[in-house]
Amino acid sequence: MALPLGTSAALCRPTDNPTPNVRPPTPPPQPHAFPTAPTPPFLQRLTRLLPYLRDSRAGLLVALAGAALTAATEPAIPWLLGKLLDQGFAGGSIPLWMVPAAIIGLFFVRSMSGFIAQYGLAWTANRAVLKLRENMFAQLLKSAPAVFSQQTASGMTNTLVYEAQAGVTILSSSVLTLVRDSLVLLALLVYLFTLNWQLTLIVALLFPAVALVIRALGKRLHRLTLEGQKATDDRAYTVEENMLAWRIVRLHGAEAQQGKRFFGRADRVRQLMMKAVVAGGTMTPVTQMLAACALSVVIVIALWQSRSGTSTVGDFVAFVTAMLQLVAPAKHLSDVMASLTRGLAAVERGLDFIATSPAEQGGTHTAERARGEIVLSCVSLRYRDDTAAAVDDLSLHVRAGETVALVGPSGAGKSSLVNLLPRFVDPGSGIISLDGVPLAEWNLLALRRQFALVSQDVVLFNDTVAANVALGTDMPREAVRDALRAASLLDFVDSLPQGLDTLIGHNGNQLSGGQRQRLAIARAIAKDAPILILDEATSALDSESERAVQAALERLMQGRTTLVIAHRLSTIEHADRVLAMDAGRLVEQGTHAELLAAGGLYARLHAMQFRT
């Protein structure tokens, strides 16, 4: 008998008894809050990378040893010059063969130690990138469904594929520069101190001033880097949109409009990059001017000391040479802050995603195969607080093995209702149970094992035919063939050059629309789940294929709970029950004949569709 308008809402009065055979659910987990704390100190941010380096400590130690050896050879150059001036030119006490031997040997050691440091750090960095990507992708696979509405595909691709690699590469190069040149500075300062401690103290006054400049410009660089990341995501998203919607763009003649839109976002990236160049480039001239001031003072004092006879010509040349050698590492250290900021900001996007993206929360209840009894009690779903409810106070009991069709105008809540069952979304209120157990208490893997879905929006992977049919399982090839045969696709697959091993392209773009639909049906058949969700499952098929697939689906539906969303009402006439929905509410239910006789929403939809 048809259910009159408003009955489902009436069932949800607070005085009603709870639905029988349904255990009350455990309290839902609290939503994760994304942190909004101020940016922590640089070193504290850098320590977040340590867990990804623990398995690569050997590479770090090798890199550190190579950098230390490179730094140790740096003071040897001015020391050698001083000895040549004092003993080689003046005294002639150094054998001539020792000069090329010492110079060649010194630079051989420097070259080898530099290579070892670079290789060790690159080995460590690439292992860290691999581990970071693995963790990011694992987090993506288990993230709560809300994350996928907050992240764009292009933005996530940019973070996981490009920024992770580029960020760690920039960081590793910058860290090598930081460690190596810091050790070089330390070695040269120690050497200078042994030569003339008074002049060395003057040189040391340079470093606090440089540190202040680096700190001030580093904050601006960090802010510009974050803005640049967002602008890059916007630019990539524009490309993604135009790749997916190229037919619509050309059909509406919107090429110029979209080109202007892309240019605006690309120009924004350019502007931010130039601001970052100015902020980073300012460090070098400021540092060089400070170094020039210190150098001029030191040379004047050193010349005065040499005239007074307190130092030799060799000592003076050695000191000035060592001091000039300080300029290069000091310049590198001033430049490295910009690279460190860019690299760390890029890597932090991935780290933040791992740390702050909430994972799906499931229960502990498991079952190998459910009976398929579904009960909804006073269920409401609202995607946003300022929009109408997608599902509004809906109560429903679907018996195990029953075939239920969902009909209604667009936006009636049909797709929202079926998305609630595998917990792709969670209701704002009410209880949904499977076999008497609230969905919140089901283990998520066990719950989703009970459902097979064929949607009008077919999703296929750029893999083989067999891999798409056996998705998520290690299925025998004969079982794959049986599923393809049931979906009326086996003859076509056997005609392909590689048969089951044929690659089908991005989202199956090597197949026709009907072939893609039948491949998705074969996947559902192969899963053999106790509950089927068919969302316009035969919408892309021709009449002959539709009859063959419909017959296969009808055989598959026997003994299984089946929910069918259909706009072509002729495909659901034999359903056990038809539910007519409008504005998120269940307005009537009954058999096809009962609803036609009732003259309600279903009868109006049927009349509109079959009007001649």
Written account of the structure:
It is built from 21 helices and ten strands. The protein has 612 residues and is of the alpha/beta class. It folds into two domains: 7-19 and 364-610, P-loop containing nucleotide triphosphate hydrolases (Rossmann fold); 53-353, ABC transporter transmembrane region fold (Up-down Bundle), CATH 1.20.1560. Helix 5 (98-142) packs antiparallel against helix 7 (153-195), helix 7 runs antiparallel to helix 12 and helix 16 packs across helix 18. The longest helix has 53 residues, at 255-307. It is elongated, with a radius of gyration of 35 Å. Mean pLDDT is 79; it is low at 4-11 and 13-36.
Mean pLDDT: 79
Helix content: 55-70%
Q: How many helix segments?
A: 21
Radius of gyration: 35 Å
Structural domains: how many: 2
CATH topology term of the largest domain: ABC transporter transmembrane region fold
CATH superfamily of the largest domain: ABC transporter type 1, transmembrane domain
Low-pLDDT segments, ≥5 res: 4-11, 13-36
Q: CATH architecture of the largest domain, please?
A: Up-down Bundle
Largest sheet: 6 strands, mixed
Q: What is the strand content?
A: 5-15%
Structural class: alpha/beta
What is the general shape?
A: elongated
Strand order in the largest sheet: 6-7-8-3-9-10
- CATH class descriptor of the largest domain: Mainly Alpha
CA-CA gap between termini: 29 Å
Give the total of beta strands.
10
Task: Please sum up the structure shown.
The protein is built from 21 helices and ten strands. The chain is α/β, with parallel strands linked by helices and 612 residues long. It folds into two domains: 7-19 and 364-610, 3-Layer(aba) Sandwich (Rossmann fold); 53-353, ABC transporter type 1, transmembrane domain (ABC transporter transmembrane region fold).
